[in-house]
Amino acid sequence: MSRIYERVALIGLGLIASSMGHAIRRHGLAGHVAGHAKTAATREAALEIGFCQSVHASAAEAVKGADLVVLAVPVGAMGAVAAEIGPHLKPGATVTDVGSVKQAVVEAVGPHLPAHVHFVPGHPMAGTEHSGPHAGFATLFENRWTILTPLEAADPAAVARLKALWEGMGAKVAAMDPAHHDSVVAVVSHAPHLIAYTMVGVADHLAQVSNSEVIEYSAAGFRDFTRIAASDPTMWRDVFLTNREAVLDILGRFHEELFVLQRAIRMGDGPALFDYFTRTRAIRRGIIEAGQDTAAPDFGRGKVQP
Ligand code: NAP
C-alpha cells in the first residue's frame, strides 16, 4: 500500500486512535505518526507499544506540520481540542474526527478551524468495549464501515484522500449527511447500548436474584448485554448528551414495540410472538449476509492481537 499522508497527528490515543496507528504503520500509509493524549501515562504507553513514532505534551505541538489531524477524543472534548490546535494547523491540512456523533462535532469543531484547512468529519463503525492505548489492534476497521460526513463546501480531493486512508486500513467507506448519520447510529448503536445499560441495571437492582446467580448463569443473553454495558462511561455519556433527539426518537419507538410484545405475552398470543421473532431472525440473517457478523456462536469474542 502506498503512502497517503506524510505526517498524521492522532489527538487522543485510546482504542480508535491506537487501532489507526497500528493499521497506518502496518500498511505504510503515512511517513510519520505523531500523537498526543491528556495524560503522560497514555503518551508513554503509545510510544512503548509503538503505534506512534513521536508523542507531544500538547495537542498544539502534535499537529505542527501534520497533513492529517485525527481528533480521537470523547465527543464532549472535541471543541476544546479544536480551539487549541486551530492556530497551529498547517495550511492545506485535513482535519477529521472519529466521534460517534456527527452534528454536534461539526458544530463544536468547525468554528475553531481556519479557512486554510479541510474539515472532513468521520466515524468508523467499529469498536470494542475496551478503551485506552492498549486496546487497539490493526485489524479493527477491516470490512467495517467508516462513514464520512463531508460538508457541502468540502474539497473533493481532500475527501478522496481521507477515503483512501480508511480503505488502506481495510474499511468500507460511505458518505452521508451528518444529521442522517446521527439518526442511523441512534438505531444501530446508541439505543441498543442504552437498552443494554438498562438491562444490566435491572439485574443489578433485582433483590431476588443474587449477584452470584446473575454471574453464574449469565450465558443466556445477559452476558452479551454485560459486554456492551462495560463500554467506556465517558464516551457513552457524551454520545447520549450530544445525540439526544435521535436517541429519544428511537427510544419512543422502542417503548411502543415493547408494549406490543408485553401485550402479546399478557394475552397469551403465541402466533403474534412467533411472527415477531421470525421477522427479527430474518434481520439477523441479513446482517450475516451483508458480512457484518458471522453465524458462529459468540461466546464472547476474543481480542484480536495488533
Ligand atoms: P478511549 O479509548 O477512551 O480514548 C480516549 C482518548 O482521548 C484517551 O487517550 C484520552 O487520553 C484522550 N483524551 C480525552 N480527553 C482529552 C483531551 N481533552 N485532550 C487530549 N486527549 C484527550 O476512547 P475511544 O474508544 O478511542 O473513543 C475515541 C472517540 O472515538 C470518541 O469520540 C468515540 O465516540 C469514538 N468512537 C468510539 C468507538 C468505540 O467503540 N470505542 C467506536 C467508534 C468511534 P488519556 O488516556 O490520557 O486520558
Question: Helix and strand layout, with pairings?
Answer:
Elements: E1 5-11, H1 15-27, E2 30-36, H2 40-49, E3 54-55, H3 59-62, E4 68-71, H4 78-85, E5 94-97, H5 103-109, E6 118-119, E7 122-124, E8 145-148, H6 156-168, E9 172-175, H7 178-205, H8 211-216, H9 222-229, H10 233-242, H11 244-266, H12 270-289
Helix pairs in contact: 4-5, 7-9, 7-11
The structure holds NADP nicotinamide-adenine-dinucleotide phosphate.
NADP nicotinamide-adenine-dinucleotide phosphate (NAP) is lined by residues 11-17, 37-39, 42, 59, 72-75, 77, 80-81, 98-100, 123-124, 127, 131-132, 135, 232, 235.
What does this structure look like?
Helices cover 49% and strands 12% of the residues. The chain has 306 residues and is α/β, with parallel strands linked by helices. It folds into two domains: 5-176, Rossmann fold (3-Layer(aba) Sandwich), CATH 3.40.50; 180-267, 6-phosphogluconate dehydrogenase C-terminal fold (Orthogonal Bundle), CATH 1.10.3660. The strands form two sheets. Strands 3-2-1-4-5-6 form a six-stranded parallel beta sheet, sandwiched between helices. Strands 7-8-9 form a three-stranded mixed beta sheet, with helices on one face. The radius of gyration is 21 Å and the shape is elongated. The protein starts with a strand and ends in a 17-residue tail after the last helix. The model is unreliable at 299-306 (pLDDT under 50). The structure holds NADP nicotinamide-adenine-dinucleotide phosphate. Residues 11-17, 37-39, 42, 59, 72-75, 77, 80-81, 98-100, 123-124, 127, 131-132, 135, 232, 235 line the site of NADP nicotinamide-adenine-dinucleotide phosphate (NAP).
